[in-house]
Amino acid sequence: MVSLPHWFSDRRCLILAAGAVGVAILLGILAAFGVYDLAFLTLRTVTERGSIVIETRYNPVAFAVFGVLAAITFGGALLLARFIRLCARSGPRASVDEIASASATLGRELANALAVIRLDLANKETYARSLANAQGRLAGLTEADQVRVVVSLLVAENERMRLASEKDKHKLEASAQEIDALQASLRGAEEATLTDPLTGIGNRRLFNDAMTKAIKDSHAQRVPLSLIMCDIDHFKRVNDMFGHDVGDEIIRALARVIETSVRETDSVARYGGEEFAIILPGTELTRAKETADRIRRQFSAKKFAIRKTNQKIGQVTASFGVAEHRPGDDVQEFVRRADAKLYEAKARGRDRVADFGERG
């Protein structure tokens, strides 16, 4: 199936937000697994002698790391919120609900992961404090039994840290799996906001984005760009006579013909109702007209009938307007010129292709 490019601003938001989640989870996994010695992230180190605190040192690196982690988390939340707002303005309601639900769950999983990280850091601070206390006590001990007691306490504290790290590791693994599933759900919901549900090809929203990109690429690479607009002839009459189910099937049939008649680099979208748009990068007007005429002939050759009653619908045709991009054309002007030729084709008898000619 020919589809339109999916690299657009909403997706960038999603990718950046997913990246923020990934960084936060990575920090937690490093802490839980002990892959690196994260003692340098301890907020403070306390040195005691007996019950007297000799020195307390605050680690500026730890505060900086926590600040970066908070910024990443906050930024990811903002990007997800922006993505939801953008989709809410233009996407189907069901898809927006899916995105909102998945995003809410993603936020909860991120909060859980950060809670595990905070707990792990707190455990490390407690562990560092215990080591400092033991160091102070060992310095003043003279009898072997007293040394054995302190060592036993250190062994017990070390085992507690090991069990806590193992528990945190399992929590982070569960959160990572849930986040992977949610990211897949978000991608599916995003696809739904960019796809026409009747035909499975791109919708008007994705067409606008793809056309903007195609014009930019055409200008930057100095290559031609053409646009085909097509519309099913007398479609209202077909709907009135045979019903909307038949009309929908005819729309799907034209979409299939178009998809099988264009290149992988071309983009196809249902522009609205029974009208379609085809973007042809690197294609001059003459070749675009040939493509339009090939689609026209293949579609008009089809014979439609109602399956249940075998009632013959007969020939259904389509008209086409073709334009090549001109310097200075924005999306609206480019579409307007192709649309003007589409209506000219209809005015001249339908089932034909109209273009601006080499000189326009």
UniProtKB/TrEMBL annotation:
GO biological process: cell adhesion involved in single-species biofilm formation; negative regulation of bacterial-type flagellum-dependent cell motility
Domain of life assignment: Bacteria
Alphabetical UniProt keywords: Coiled coil, Membrane, Transmembrane, Transmembrane helix
Pfam families: GGDEF (PF00990)
Domain GGDEF: 223-358
Enzyme nomenclature, EC number: 2.7.7.65
Membrane-spanning residues: 12-41, 61-84
GO molecular function: diguanylate cyclase activity
GO cellular component, one term: plasma membrane
Stored InterPro entries: Diguanylate_Cyclase, GGDEF_dom, Nucleotide_cyclase, Rev_trsase/Diguanyl_cyclase
Coiled coil: 153-192
Alphabetized PROSITE patterns for the sequence: GGDEF
Protein name: diguanylate cyclase
Organism encoding this protein: Hyphomicrobium nitrativorans NL23
